[in-house]
């Protein structure tokens, strides 16, 4: 089979891409060869006859809403077989269920009044039957793939309209009874809190229970694999509920508006759970002042083992949450405690952290996720022999049970990709047509989410109510509390049981492990900076910190953890640096939204220590995407993506802006104000500043060209500041 580009076809209200598909349909021997007794498939090429058929594939590239809905009925005839799935997964970015349903039923489904253009010739019974079948096929796909679109309490207008149409046009059909059952199901279901597993509000606790700081003895009673299984159980339940269109960049990026406080609840639930795991790790390590350093080190070791069990279960969400917590400022700075962690476990920690390396747009975690998405069990490859032996033993136990495993992803990676696609590609093209090519690109990411959701059906986990109740009861430390407890723990350790001789030997051991022959010099500490209201409460404010996609968590539920070392380098040379007293931080989490903060040199004491997740994957497009798309931190093709935060707000509360080599300061300022939900008319009141380093800024003149004026050798981080 060969394909050939057939160019474009333009119709009124639509533009199509045309591809010519040439397929070999028959190969036969000629008569002379057959007379000689040869078999057709064994004859040389000169004695065979090949027949080919060329077919045309039309895929809509852009169109009006009416044309896009009409194309639902004609896509199969145009050989665009994936169109219905793509449309249903992405249409919420440009239309409502009501608008699409009205067009489908009133414009094309009203067979009695078929006097409109496209259906005017459908006057024969046969044509009406064909149209009826096509509409039924679309409705069936809609109910199969996106039944949540019809959940509109308390009136359920769309579902009632659909039911009325079916009663008139397809009475007593299976679909009619199905819609009736769906309506009853929605009406009878009580309103559920999608974050029921991870909420720590008092309303979720049994009468008489109160939030409490973790008791180390109680936590140690839970076996490592039990904790990992229960975290996986909670993650699976929440991830399976994620409505894919909630992840679209055009929808998720609107969550900060006041009227959208309930937007994308299924995504918010996964973020809340992610943060709850991270906070739980921090509170178990720091919550009890009386712990000795060896006891605290044992808890760190236990969490590393739990992270390893999550890896065996292919739960990348809780795995990343635990790693992020261990890399947070308040935990990372416990240098004496980390000295008491065994070498084997530190190596295990390094290998787990390596999964989330930000190298090449998090290529390692992306490839691993896709490799394991459909595999029955985890593919473990440990470079350390002892760890590999333990891993294979645990994996064999899983295989012996004979139950396949699914895969729980770190959702932030997909959110990052979708936000970057939304930023880089236009919603409308020339003539005001909806850019459906953008939706096809977004569907590539949505399809991966759906595949992983399907794989989660393979899990067979039973909830352990004892652990779940313990997990819900945990009181999460604020960043100020965790930093204070961290300092107290380290100060006590410095004057505690370690003699000068043992201190010297431990310093030598840890410095050899981390830095080769270099001396271990702990970073200089500074008190944490308070987070402004509305910002992510747990993120470093260092200006060099780079979180690459528009994943700000300004909600109170989306607290952030800022690791001080990158996920890949806590055990590598240079991972603990004394450069100006700051630790190298490359990989933070920001509220499950997107990946990790890249390249930050944040002071271990200066960021917040709380367990919130500043998750921003370096916001590039999926690996399958063409390289022509603008990406963060790189100018290409006369365009690039910058991140703009408001002066006075937390650095993590930023918006991604696409700029071109034609954009000047007023244009960029206006777009930034709009993105931050501020009045765009106030352009003259603001100045745009690029952050060059911790103590340097580049202030742009009023009419400067931002693309050519910016410093392209540093992070593309900008601040919008009110003029004095």
From TrEMBL:
It comes from Platysteira castanea. Residues 541-551 have a biased composition (Polar residues). Residues 638-724 form the Ras-associating domain. Residues 531-540, 573-619 have a biased composition (Low complexity). InterPro entries: RA_dom, Ras-like_GEF, Ras-like_Gua-exchang_fac_N, Ras_G-nucl-exch_fac_CS, Ras_GEF_dom_sf, RASGEF_cat_dom, RASGEF_cat_dom_sf, Ubiquitin-like_domsf. One of its GO terms (cellular component) is plasma membrane. One of its GO terms (biological process) is Ras protein signal transduction. This is RGL1 protein. One of its GO terms (molecular function) is guanyl-nucleotide exchange factor activity. Residues 223-492 form the Ras-GEF domain. It comes from the Eukaryota. Residues 518-628 are annotated as: Disordered.
